[in-house]
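Hi everyone, sorry if this is the wrong subforum. Our group has a chain we'd like a structural model of before ordering constructs, and none of us has done structure prediction before. Sequence below.
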Amino acid sequence: MRKVGGANTFWTNAFPVLASNAVSRKTQGAGSFDISMPLFGQPAVEPRSGGGTSDYQVVLTFPAAVSFAGASLTSGAGSVANSSGSGTSTVTLNLTGVTSGQYATVTLAGTNDGTNANDVAVRLGILIGDTTGDGQVNSADIGQTKSKSGQTIDGTNFRNDVTADGNLNSGDIGLVKSRSGTALP
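Answer:
Right subforum, don't worry. Here is the predicted structure as tokens:
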């Protein structure tokens, strides 16, 4: 703890609890693929569909084991269906009802590393079909998805599997085309 202020003194964490890494994870076919989420600055864009119930998974990694009091979506439409990993260095948050065309903030309340405690929040843009990650779905996304059609999914092209079914095909092209003209706020 560190003392801050003069006459109106209060205490604050000397070393706030911070995640060292955050990703949006989807299982696509035989593998899981991650989109790295910057901890500060412009959020990453998740272009893959969450399926019929708009489900997404956020995985936070900390330098040491942490516990937390709860997890919630503190901005954006959707909710945290469940969480796991309290007492470990990896926390998994399963989100549901997360709509496309928004920025969402996921917050771990009361994150505690045994010395310090604070809330930890990360932001993510959700825009189905934005395979280029520029915040809008347009002809560049359609062209990129078409060029990947028929390929085996790997670490270089998984963003184009917007249906998240493990195949790069006409279903992905059709979904990107249907979302053309949409953008993040």
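For your construct planning: Residues 82 and 94 are 5 Å apart (CA to CA). The helical segments are 139-148, 170-179.
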